[in-house]
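Pasting as-is:
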Amino acid sequence: MRRSTHAGWPSWALIGALVTLFVHLQVVLYPSVDAAAQQWTASLIYVLTFLLAGLACLRNAPRHGQDAPAWRTLAWGLLAFALGQVIYTHLLLVRHLTPFPSLADAPFLTALALYAASISRFRSPPMSPLERARIGIDVGLIVTATCVALAPRVLPDVLSAYAGQPAALLIGLAYPLGDLVVLSAFLLSTVRRGVPFSARELLLAGGFLCLIVADQAFLNLSAAGRYAPGVWADLFWSLGAALLAGASALRPDLPVWRVRSRLNLPLLPTFLPYLALLVPFTPLLGAVRLGRAPDPLHVWGATLMTALVVGRQVVAFQVIAALGAQLRGLSAQLEARVQERTTQLTAANRALADLADHLDVKVQERTAELESSRAQLMHQAQHDALTGLPNRALFLNHLQRAVALAARDGRSLGVLFADLDGFKAVNDTFGHATGDEVLRQVAVRLEACVKSGDLVARLSGDEFTVILPGMTAAELDRVGRRLVRALERPFLVDGQRLSVSGSVGAVLYPQDGADADTLIRHADSAMYRAKADGRNCLRFYDPVMERELHGRQALLQALKQAVHDEQFTLVYQPQVNVQTGALEGAEALLRWTRADGQVIAPATFITLAEQSGVMVPLGRWVLRDACEQAARWHRAGRGLRVAVNVSAVQFQDAGFVQSVRATLCETGLPAALLELEVTESLLMQDVPRVQAVLRELKALGVRLTIDDFGTGYSSLSYLQVLPIDTLKIDRSFLPRPGEEASQAVLRAVVGLGQALHMQLVAEGVETGEQRRAVQALGCVVMQGFHFARPMPVTALEAWRDAWVGEQPGGPGT
């Protein structure tokens, strides 16, 4: 850690120097009656002052950075002076000898040399030889003027006092010469630095000036025989030492005032040397005017200073010449720089022009790219990404313009609305990638059926529309049938031949609608009529279709409300074992009777529920209600397995298995008493997923049944790996009078189920003949009107109590 410069013995040394200076001042002003005591006190006081001042400079030297060596040298000079004073006091007051000249003069003169050396070691900025020569001449002029001014007052006393004493005379002259050296060094250092005056500089100047004054006073008093320790001259030594110690404690950059001394300005360096000429020339001129002989000292001083002034002028001329050359060089450099900058600016201007051209090209390219991107975005916004056909937005825009043009020109306009039949099965069975390829091929076929001026668009999913301007009813019929025939042909995708068909609705402007929205709505109604009429056909719009559509929409709203309000009921149809007479189970069947008493057929509202998205919550309600009823039977000790039909939409729901698990847990029904029936066609939709779901259901412990077996296209390999418990033989395979073929088919279906080791249930048994025929083939579990119709819970319980079984010779034989 850096030590503070205001703490420790250096600060005490400075304070001590100042204190001793104050005491010395008291001694001088109020001398003691005892002369010996006065001399001892004065000697010891300023010995102590120089000692403390030297210690302060020595300790404060590191804080001055590059000037630290100069301060150390100055400190040794102060300590050398203190040593000399100790020797001087010993000789004078102890041994009572005359101390001049004496051994004490050696440290005194050494101190002067160290003062001059310390001044020369203070840092100064670099200068040219001419500047150093001019500064040296200026210092020589000032020193010469000082010698001329002081020599008449110092030299006569010294020469007369020490005449015949060469050693004393030499030492006596060494003191003023040493002081001149110190003064010259200080002036030279101050002028060379050329820095703003600071408090440190002023204290240094004051300190050295006090020391020089004290030396000269000592010489004069000693030469006159009047010096004794404690006189007023000693006070300047103490004051000088104290000022130097104070300067060591100040920061180098602490300013007093900011007047910069510059060598190239007409201030001090310019006028002071010439003012110094007044010192020798003033007494010379006075002597001439009074008619006296001039003093030789003044003559030699004037001669020397005149020579120095001439030399200074020569140097000044050389400086001016050097400045002129420097200015010419600077002018040439400036001209070269201007030329260089002009060349650079010219090159920059060319570069900027090239850059501007490049930017212009880039802007044009970017503009073209933006226009292309805009066109692409516009195309993407108005066209189907899969088929490239116009989308719904562009179709509506074209249809509105086509209607406006037809109204203006009094022409007709045909619109076709096509929906693919069986496309969902393709998607579910073969995947969406295959379905997408089918849609692309459909787009190509539809465009091939119309003229270049007609518009084919993909409205959504598997719905396509066609705008046919200027069409009559007959022409529209021909184009519509052409579309139906085009969609009948199988589609070849990855080596597979896929069959879908198209149901097409047709409308004609203006008789079927006066605006675009009406035409689309009526074309959609005609398309649904085509689907209702067996699909794969063309139907024109009829106003009756609108009423049917409105009825369908009203029924859909009523269905959604009924699902929300749980307005449905379940009826149960028993499944009996005709061989044992046991009641095997009961199938839960959904019924809907509206609030007005109207009964809606299951085929009607279940299809509507699947299409409208309410089948999942409706199926969840059916499952819960059936399980709750089966759980009540189980708790009453009359356990009965309940079969619940599962819609394909419900089966494909991701939460179906969890729903079954939660229902069993909440109702407390054993899983073995729940049977889930799925259609055979559902098994062919996304077979890996179906297989996974069936295995999860089987893991719960429920029974799984394939409903309407034989009507789908299930693979025997799939049936072998699927966890199926029961096959329900569809009623269409039951024997009818005079149909031998149906007997053969039934025999094959029963044999297949037996070969797969699955339980068989024949549904739709309505006559005793059908019961006997099915039983003869080995299928003993049956369900149908022959045994009981679907009935509410209370009726089923009554029927169950009355049922005694189908024994030989029993009822129904």
